[in-house]
Design goal:
Length: 309
Amino acid sequence: MIVFGIFLSVIAGVSHSADLLQIPANPDKGFNYPYLLKLPEAVSKEDRTFLIVETNNTGKVSDDYDVHLAAAKNAIVGNAVGPWLSKKLSYPILMPVFPRPKSEWQIYTHALDRDSMLTKSLPFERLDLQLKAMIENAQDVLRERSLEPEDKVILAGFSASGTFANRFSLLHPEIIEIVVAGGLNGTLMLPTALLDSYGLKYPLGINDFSQITGRNFNLDEWLNIKQFLFMGENDTNDAVAYDDAYSEEERSVIYKTTGKSIHPERWNNSQKIYKKYGANVTFRTFKGLGHGTNGNVHSEFLAFVRGNI
C-alpha cells in the first residue's frame, strides 16, 4: 500500500500484461504518479492514429493509493467514454493514476478543481502539467513500438473526468484535437473573465488564468478544438452543491450567473456562452437519460469523432 505524503517511487520499472502497460512515476520527466497505457489490439482502420486520454475517476476519496490504481486498471479496460472509443477506433489510450486523498478531501484532483491547481505541496502540484508530461512520454513510448500517433490527442471523460477534460481543454488547447465529455453538472469552465460583472476565477472562467498558469489563455487554439459535450436531460448529479468540488464563493457566483438548477437553466446558459465565443462544439441533451450513457450516446460521439479525424 502507498500512503499519501510518501513519494511514489515504488514502481521501479514498466510492468505490463498483454497490451496494458503501467508506466512508473518519473519526476525527472514531469510526472509524480504512474500512468496506464493500453495499446490497440488491432491496427487502426482510420487514416490517422490518435492517443486517447481519459483521466481516472475513482468515485470516492481514499488515502490508499492501491484503491485508485485498481480503479484505473478496471476503468481503462471497461466501457467508459475513452476506453470505448479506444476499442472502436483501435487507438491507444492513456489513463493517469492520480490519487484523490481522503486526508486532503478538499483537493478534488479527479475534477482538477481550484485547490488542486493552487496547491504547492508535491506530489499534488499542477496535475495538468503532470498529465501533459505523461502525454508526451506516452507518445514517445508508442513511437518506440512503431506506432505514430498525431501530436494532438483526443480527450475524453464523464462526470469528474469529464469536468477534468473540459478544464484541461482550456488550460492546454494546443495539444487537443477533439474533446468528448459528458455528465458535466450543467456547468462548464467559460472562456471569459467576467459574466454579469462577476469575476470568473478558475475553474469558473479565465479571470486569474495568467496568475495560476503563468501564461495567457489561448482563445484561438481553444476555438480549433472539436468538442462534443453532452448531458442527460434527467441528470441531477450536481457537484456544484458539494464543498469538495466548489467553494461557497464559487457556488454563489455560479448561481448568480449561469443559474442554480442544472436543467434547463445552467446547462442552457453555458451553451449560449460557448456559442457566443464561437466554440467549435456540438451540444447534446439526451432524452430520458440520467447521469450515465447508453448505446445511443456512444454511437453519436463515435460518429462525431470519426467525422472529425
